[in-house]
Amino acid sequence: MPGKAAGVAGGEDETVAAPAAAGSGEGPRGPLLDDLMPWSVRPLRTGRPWVTAPDAASLRARWDRLVRAAGEERERLFSPTRARTQQSAVAALPGRPGATGRFARESGPCPEPVRILHGPFDEQWLLPDHRLIDVARPELWRVADDRQLFLVEHGRVPNDPGPAVSVTTLLPDGHSPAGRPGRVRPLYRRPGGLEPNLAPGLLPALRARYGDAVTAESVLAWILAAARPSPAGCVVPLPADAARWADGVELGRELLRLQLRGARGAERPRLPGGQRPYVRAAVPPDPGPLSYDADERVLHLGSGRVSPVPAGAWEFRVSGVRVLELWFERRTTGAGAGPAGAGAAGLEAVRPRTWPQEWTSELLELVSLLALLAELRSRQEELADALAAGPGAGADALRAAGVLPVPEAARRPASVLDHREEGPDGQFALL
User: What angle (nearest 5°) sits at the alpha carbon of residue 352, between those of residues 271 and 359?
Assistant: First the structure.
């Protein structure tokens, strides 16, 4: 719809979703995600790629090299932008300890790197220092806790069969491997799992149609199972009957369990015995090109071999990009420089000299996750076909129930009036 398209294409510094135009809210066979979960945040914009890495040790080494440098070398390594220089006055990231003095005076130890989701299904590390990040989206940090779930939209690519959305407990940077980046939608607007990020009145309206068991998490599960991209924005068809809703929620809960990847006591993704991938030949210190043998179901990393790898895991794509290839590329492009070889390439060249063992373990888990998600695609397709063929409860029903149009306040972050945060140079602000 015009309003949605305008909201997605807005300026880079916009941090809340632009409201949909009057009369919008109905995509093909369903309302838009933008109206069901109205508060959304644009992706993070680091401004300098060296503040993220697939391993935490590289970030600590980069920090140490930067703070030991002086003069022009330090300025070059820092990589100043219009949004961030070494003289920028910046508040601390919400919920994170850290210095707020000008970075030009920084000589202390490295802040502890935090685990983030760097694009779909790629868990990496970030230096949590606001002075180093152009646009950190503090409103996301403010609500990130052990109750929060983040729904991430993926960039739309026409005719791409990959998922429209994914979910994570980690802070997502919202990076999209291809196409226009989507938005990040926290499930809760306040810390502690308080105030679901759902259109006001949506839960009562859904309970009236599908039963009293409808919760914020079951709505999220339905979105995971049923959401699909469209030119108007991400569409979430709603069924007419409670039985189909229950089936979709059950499927969505399984997708949620897998994508949590062991967080909050859940079991880590694990294929049945006999189907689990193992290292058949050790990954070399400097692995060569990644390739896949479909007949043997073998993933080759140079002379390294991992099998069995189901074809569904190898072919799993998001925004038209094969996830395993992108994951491998991010860990091998420019490999071999090492801490001593940063040179003119800058801090991004400070990286492991050889392939770390933990990356192999992460690869085995990622293969398992993608294989299990691929197995559920047929159920998602069956659900999509049933929703397309059968009667639905679209935006008109939500409008009749008073859920639409969404109030403008629901599209903005909630204020946290009792939360003190450190501002620039140690000042405090009450938000």
Answer: 5
